[in-house]
Automatic annotation (TrEMBL), chain A:
GO cellular component term of the entry, any: membrane
Single annotated GO MF: phosphate transmembrane transporter activity
Protein name: Phosphate ABC transporter ATP-binding protein, PhoT family (TC 3.A.1.7.1)
Recorded coiled-coil stretches: none
Classification lineage: Bacteria, Bacillati, Bacillota, Clostridia, Eubacteriales
UniProt-listed PANTHER family: ABC TRANSPORTER I FAMILY MEMBER 17
TrEMBL record, chain B:
One GO cellular component term noted in the UniProt record for this chain: plasma membrane
InterPro entries linked to this entry: MetI-like, MetI-like_sf, Phosphate_PstA
Subcellular location: Cell membrane
Organism: Thermosyntropha lipolytica DSM 11003
GO annotation, biological process: phosphate ion transmembrane transport
Family: Belongs to the binding-protein-dependent transport system permease family. CysTW subfamily.
Alphabetic keyword roster: Cell membrane, Membrane, Transmembrane, Transmembrane helix, Transport
Transmembrane segment boundaries: 12-35, 67-88, 100-125, 131-150, 183-204, 248-266
Name the record gives this protein: Phosphate transport system permease protein PstA
Molecular functions (GO terms): phosphate transmembrane transporter activity
Amino acid sequence: MNSIKIRSHNLNVFYGPFQALYDINMDIESNKVTALIGPSGCGKSTFLRSINRLNELIDGVRIEGQIYIDEKPIYARDVDVVALRKKVGMVFQKPSAFPMSIYENVAYGPRIHGIKDRRVLDEIVEKSLKAANLWNEVKDRLKAPATGLSGGQQQRLVIARVLAVNPEVILMDEPASALDPISTAKLEELIAELRCNYTIVIVTHNMQQAARVSDYTGFFLNGRLIEYNRTEELFVNPRDKRTEDYITGRFG
Amino acid sequence: MPTANYGEKVMTLVFWLAAFLITAILAVIIGYIVVKGFSVLSLDFIFTPPSRAGKEGGISTTIVSTLYLVLGSLLIAVPVGVASAVYLEEYARKNSRFAYIVNLTAETLAGIPSIVFGLFGFVFFVIFLGWGWSILSGAMTMAIMILPTITRTSQEAILAVPREYRENSLALGASKWQTIRKIVLPSALPGIATGIILSIGRAVGETAALLLTAGSSLGMPMSITDPARTMAVHLYILAMEGISLERAFGTAFVIIVLILIINYAAHYGMRRLSALGR
């Protein structure tokens, strides 16, 4: 049984006079990986940042339409943004460990949300690092500064930090674009494992990556969702000429 | 090309000399001060109060007064300066008229000569508020004087904290204030410390403004309403009134050592503090 986790309904986003997204209607399935592809500046990241309301941080942004998570509107007046962001974690393009220890990085979220018991924190940190495939590499130096980790390790640390607050959805904004091929492979492997328990939406520039990791793919162009389908379908039988041109490398 | 090679050598020498000059100047100044003040330098000089207007005895009361004034001005200026920097960088909207005015004010304040602050402090704190020549008047005046430095350096330090830290923290469900308290300020701490150290240097060296607001009493200040003479003021009076040049040099030496100690302590303290956050 498939169920819809995230539903975007007529979403329009404006940055001042510039319209970044036009009428996005998109249903994203639970416990699947959905990839968003398209050229730079076409609105993929804007859409992603609309799902955890991180867009609101930008001066002059205006959002119309609605996004539903578990059928509850997230742009309603009574929505608690903190609870929303706890439920919808995000991994950014640039791996960015906080300038504190590996342990403190992972414990940051749980502490913010009021967990103080050291044993509970220890447990969460271990569980999250294990789930992010980083435990074996760092278990002997949890107190060491996280900024000393490699880019790939930092990105997995960021994922562990996100997992530590127990989200249901994980948004990833080109998570591998700053990583070397080996780190990228490890990250993709991790995404494949995480899909069993989380709904993942990933923005990527790399079409092979989209094809490898995702179940569904949406193609964005100039702020519009041009085509959205099962990944094999979209890559093998694109219905729209523009999708075909893009995935065959004719532009972008 | 031999000429190019020659030019290279000459310029290297010029740059080396310029760099050497800095070290040489410091060595000469400190050497001169030590030689001139050596005859009076002793533990007694540091631990006994001055007598006969400073002709005899030590400088203990002026050391204590200096520390009180520095501490007092920091206690006022650091919270206000850091808080306003947080407001300007984290809360104010870009292009906000209020933020523009605050920035302009801070810049203007930074450019005002200290004697003008002294005059203001004298008229406002000493006379109008009736606080008299006192640690309180002096510390308030110094606080106003160092406020722009602290605000500016804190702003720069906060601005230098990567945007990704803030986004990651907010995306984890942290509030803005939690993000500032747990991520932004700890990351900005070394930069803020630099501003504080610069300010301490300014406060320890200030003479004219303090002469007008804290007075020149040689007694040991027992409360913040007591007048006080800092080491810099003491040095000025010793030299200007021809009381004792040796003691002026001895005082100068203690000032330099004190500044070095404070700088080192601040660096060390900040490193400890940011290590705790790690």
